[in-house]
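On clarity, I found the account of how folds are encoded harder to follow than it need be. Since the whole study asks how a given chain folds, the encoding of that fold should be made plain. For illustration, here is how one protein appears when written out as sequence plus structure tokens:
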Amino acid sequence: MTPEKPGRCPISLNDPELTADPYHGFGRIREEAPVALGSLADGRNIWIVTRYDDVHAVLTDERFVSNSQSVPGTTTNRHAESLTWLGLSEELLPLLTRAITQLDPPHHTRLRELVAGSFSARVPALLPRVRALADELVDALPVHAVDGTGTVDLVEHFADPLPIAVVCELLGVPAEDRARWRKWSHDYADILRLKNMLTESGGYLRELVRRRRAEPADDLITGLMAQGAEGERLSDTEVVTMAFHLIVAAHETTAGLIGNGVLALLTHPGQLALLANEPQRMPEAVQELLRWCSPMVFGKPRYATEGIRVADTPIGKGDVVLPVQGAANHDPRHFPEPERLDITRRPDGEGGRHLAYSRGPHHCLGATLADHEAEIALGTLFGRFPQLELAVAEEELAWRPVPGTRQLVRLPVRLGAEAAGPGRRA
């Protein structure tokens, strides 16, 4: 892999400035070059793709794969190599390298088909519990107020605990273990804690699967172990790996969406007022928030299975390509006035929708649940506390320094007066 313009330094994905402000940083890259040369933490080069049409093409073109071993003539698992470079031992690698996001057809197709039905079937029945859990957390917010000012950290006491409670209920993880999973989920992004996190959480799930084999329950863990329509079933290792990634992904991404969504609405009072007057707009508001401030700026890199041109840039066989959905969702070529938050924005057909949940075979399995969680969370919170406001200046807020993400460390707010009972909106 060589740069399109000789002598130009690759863009480091770990650049502190890019990590601190990824939407503007990748936006500048998008306008400078549709395909730019970047570098991974281990020094390897990667092509950064940022414009909507090109990102969409990479996500949906079957010539771009998720596993380097799917590239003809390649036997090396580059993801496993990267994890080893980070210091993970070989016995811990399967929990990460055998995830559904790391697989390509036919293995990916088999796994997704076995999981999707059981997962989707449980979402409608789970929604009343999502509402109840949101109500419980909102009820408790005044208790967490500090300094007599009514200031509460919404990340700590609402945005973060709600998704972990929901996904734990979905899978059948006991309520008393939610705190452990909340910690493990945060540790996933910390390389210094990752080894212990994988050891402890993997052991926990293997024991939970063993118990469900002996005593089935009405939960997703049991559902994942059921026989599929063609007589196939997941192995215990596949169940453990799937459960692990469902918990981590469902927690981190939804928590980030709720926190970012609250901040976006508080800093756009006109949009918040419109939503208060027309609460039926909540579903489209959540879709606009996913476009405008998704907590995931980019996801998994892809590998080219043959020589391909992307935006007239030659991509070689085996090259690594990173589609940056966050930059694509702000592409002015596709979204009029993309920096304007507009909850009345309507996508122009199928191609106009945001890419926050990816596209193609790796479209987010939990997208529907995440949508409903965000709708319920925002509706419940603003319905109970319509005078909610930031307790600090927006520029004082801290963001997690994790490449490819945009998630708040804390979100201090003043609750204000509660709405009267009949006027509550949820």
